[in-house]
Amino acid sequence: MSAADGQPLPHGYTNRTTARGGRVTKTYRGPGAVARQQREELALRALAARLPVATVAESRPRSLVLDRIAGRHGQDLITAGHGDAVMFALGAILRDVQAIVPEFYGEFDGSGVLVHGDFGPQNALLAVRNDSVVLLADWEWSTVGSPVTDLAWAEFIVRLHHPADVGSLQALFDGYGERPPWDERQAAMTERATALTAWVRSWKGDDATSDWDYRLRAIEQWREVT
Asked: Is the whole model's pTM more than 0.90, yes or no?
């Protein structure tokens, strides 16, 4: 990564994301980096003008250069006490995501919905002047699947990183218009966390999975929030 690409952005966990002027450069790391870059580029180009996604300015080996979008990070807003507004907005935008027929994916056979794959406040920017979502970032895990997958993952992020704000989960379901049964949401969290544990293990070995092992145990212990 060249210093010319800019300064690292906060909230990056897997890849390296830097900003310079009006552009963001995302460099993909870990197993399947090339495939994940291709997946994200496919999604961004297919969803342009249909969802609040970044515009691809340039595609490079192992990296994408994207137009930078101004906004307030979802997790920062939750920490600042705006959990209800953030989660309601996410529930509403998820309905828009799932209304799009994902025919641009080869695995689409007419069933299932568009799945972001890492949906939640960690990958959302909200408008400066209101609570609308202006960016859904990080489409590298996107696929076709169950409508519960993304909803459950947004809940997982809140339960794990913002346990004091679990009361805001009701706003997520209100925005979405539905509250699927707890056993379905819990199973979706477990499935996704299990897949990510295996991915981390393939990259960094068994010693690097302790955080994900903890998260899987936490999911098993969680109960419905009323």
From this structure: yes
